[in-house]
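Hey all, quick one. A colleague (J.T.) asked me to put the 2AL job into the tracker so the inputs and the structure tokens live in one place instead of scattered across chat threads. No bug as far as I know, just bookkeeping. Sequence used:
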Amino acid sequence: MRIKVINPNTTASMTSKIGAAARAVAAPGTEIVAVNPDKGPVSIEGHYDEAVSVIGLLEEVHAGEAAGVDGYVIACFGDPGLLAAREIARGPVLGIAEAAMHAASLIATGFSVVTTLERTRIIAEHLVEAYGMRRFCRKVRATELAVLDLEDATSKARGIIAAECRRALAEDGTGAIVLGCAGMADLTRALSHELGAPVIDGVGAAVKLVEALVGLGLRTSKHGDLALPIRKPYAGDLAYLAPR
Ligand code: 2AL
């Protein structure tokens, strides 16, 4: 099985980290193809970044369909373009926020999310609502780390994230921590060990869920709103994206 893991931002070091996290959990027969678009924001920290990143993301899904990919992971915690990607993909497409929250809900009665900036925290709150996770999500916490702080070995990011996870476990009545950025994927195991509670990285969770869905013979439903987009011309520079 081939799973394409798409980092929708254009920072290659983050894509390498995401690819390593995906390969660390993938089954022996699973090939992980980790990519990022070559155009778009270097990090995704708001609605505008997300909207612009979706063009590059959808190009990668189109290319994946042409190459016969079995399933996809959108490796950004805002899950940008998730439903649009599902419309054009045959196999399953999972976002890392969605995957991590669902995984957390299966192993704890409540979880907290530890994410990057306050504005990103608000976006994650929207996703909690959209995914029907209010019943499980005790709190979404911001660290005020920028996404690219996670790529800077000299930043204090790891310690700041660990401290916020500790506060979540002490104050939120929570049983598990969801890491709210793909750039945190490399911290999962050590943090889990250090905190003595499950820490869930959405990249790993999404890879295992795609493997499970493909293993069950399940693909994205083409009945209803996730059917292939309606054929029509698109004007101007975006004509190449027109549904065929
Ligand atoms: C993210 C993420 O996972 N990648 C990125 O560029 N921005 N999300 C976040 N919550 O900071």
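Adding what we noticed when we looked at it: The beta strands are 2-6, 31-35, 71-74, 93-95, 111-115, 137-142, 176-180, 199-201. Helices lie at 12-25, 47-67, 82-88, 96-107, 118-130, 157-171, 188-195, 202-215.
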